[in-house]
Design goal:
- It is a single chain.
- By secondary structure, the chain is an alpha+beta fold.
- The protein has 2 domains: 42 residues, no CATH class; 201 residues, Jelly Rolls.
- The protein contains 4 helices and 11 strands; from the N terminus they run αββββαββββαβββα.
- The two termini are 27 Å apart.
- The C terminus is likely disordered.
């Protein structure tokens, strides 16, 4: 087989490595969720169909904070199945929340909730996943938050504005923090902690897993196997082809001498 044909075949084999990397998005619903309230510090709300991030107001002087737990092992298995074990990286993560009562000024039927109101809130990655949705309260929350004598951490995933304009769902794009991406890549549990920002007026009510659960949407990209650069192969083939052409020319000239 001539060297030109061999080089052409090799280039065809390596060209796919230059195509855009394949991506895929998988979704995981919450495995546990609840909220805690400073207005009812010893009460647990893990059996309710909704939870709320809320700042205190004059009429309702209580703070409400939320907890969402996601088991990402199914996400890891899904991406491993699509791309091969470990042959992928997370490129984006978002949280989708659903609301039945979402217009500013509305008072939910359960008086444990504050009125719906626009305002800012933040989402954080909580390192401690050891909490139970049916037992945790405002007074026991500090045992899983950062504090003296523990190694718990809160990693900011973003600050957001809840507009309270009646939308039945909202999607929040989370900061691609290495701790979050690493947890998903290893199939670990992750806890997302929601709280009002300082000075906020927010009253953001959204559904728990008992009605319409929160969704963690993760996009991953395949990591191609290392390949020899196409340009290097192309130049090498060109030089080999040139050498072969020169060799054939010399052979022809020598043959003419014997004619």
């Amino acid at each position: 087989m001539r060297i030109e044909a061999i080089c052409f075949a090799v280039l065809l084999l390596i060209m796919p490595a230059t195509l855009p990397a394949q991506t895929s998005t998988n979704t995981q619903t919450a495995a546990a969720d609840t909220f805690v309230s400073s207005g009812q510090p010893d009460s647990n709300f893990g059996t309710l169909g909704a939870m709320e991030i809320a700042a205190p107001t004059t009429a309702q002087p209580r703070t409400q904070e939320t907890l969402l737990l996601f088991d990402t092992s199914a996400l890891q298995s899904g991406f491993d199945s699509q791309f091969g074990a470990g042959n992928w990286i997370v490129t984006s993560v978002s949280l989708k929340l659903f609301s039945n009562v979402a217009t500013a000024g509305q008072q939910p039927s359960n008086n444990s909730f504050n009125k719906i109101a626009a305002g800012n809130f933040e989402l954080d990655l909580l390192s401690n996943n050891n909490w139970n949705e049916t037992t945790i309260t405002w007074n026991t929350l500090p045992t899983i938050l950062p504090g003296t004598g523990n190694t718990n951490t809160l990693t900011p995933l973003g600050t957001f504005l809840w507009p309270a304009t009646g939308s039945p769902s909202s999607t929040w794009t989370l900061n691609p923090d290495p701790a979050l991406l690493s947890a998903i890549a290893s199939g670990s549990d992750i806890t997302i902690f929601g709280q009002p920002t300082s000075g906020s007026t927010v009253g953001y009510l959204y559904n728990t897993r008992l009605t319409n659960p929160a969704q963690l949407n993760v996009t991953a990209q395949a990591v191609p196997e290392p390949s020899f650069p196409v340009s290097v192969v192309a130049v090498s083939c060109f030089l080999l082809a040139l050498r072969a052409t020169n060799s054939r020319s010399q052979t022809i000239r020598q043959n003419w001498r014997w004619v």
